[in-house]
Amino acid sequence: MRCPSCNSLDTQVKDSRPTEDSSVIRRRRVCVTCNFRFTTFERVQLRELTVIKRNGRRVPFDRDKLMRSVQISLRKRSVDPERVEKMVSAIVRELESGGESEVSSEAIGEIVMEHLRDLDDVAYVRFASVYRNFREAKDFEAVLGELSAEDETPRLAPVRK
Hints:
Residues about 155-160 have low confidence and may be disordered. This protein has two domains: about 10-45; about 50-150, Four Helix Bundle (Hemerythrin (Met), subunit A) (Up-down Bundle), CATH 1.20.120. By secondary structure, the protein is an alpha+beta fold. Strand 1 (about 10-20) and strand 2 form a beta hairpin. The protein has helices at about 65-75, 80-95, 105-120, 120-130, 135-150, and strands spanning about 10-20, 25-30, 35-45, 50, 60, 100-105. The relative contact order is 0.10. Negatively regulates transcription of bacterial ribonucleotide reductase nrd genes and operons by binding to NrdR-boxes. This is Transcriptional repressor NrdR. Keywords: ATP-binding, DNA-binding, Metal-binding, Nucleotide-binding, Repressor, Transcription, Transcription regulation, Zinc, Zinc-finger. Its cofactor is Zn(2+).
């Protein structure tokens, strides 16, 4: 692992432990060259994903970019960061287990919107406004109408056997 301070490749792991949900391993490292201490996180990756952009360009999937876009939609919202992390992990897991190594940006956007709808209505509308490229107030009204209609529909409790 390259040291973020001096770019040396000579680093040592001082401590490793799983996170609370055991989906990530947190490693404390120290650079042998400059003694800089830093933390890295290790996640399981089921497969390499390639994103097909709207213009046809193919780019490697970037989990951090997904997290940033979700965090932008959640800005100034009181949502527990752990719930956000779990949601992003669930989205990535869903994409990786989908069976395809290439996924369209539209498909990713729809999955994110589906998860945001369950997490926070305001974040859902914010994300939708960028993802669907809203141009007029009626675009917002349509999405708000979807949310209102969903709220009015009674949800049945799951049947337990």
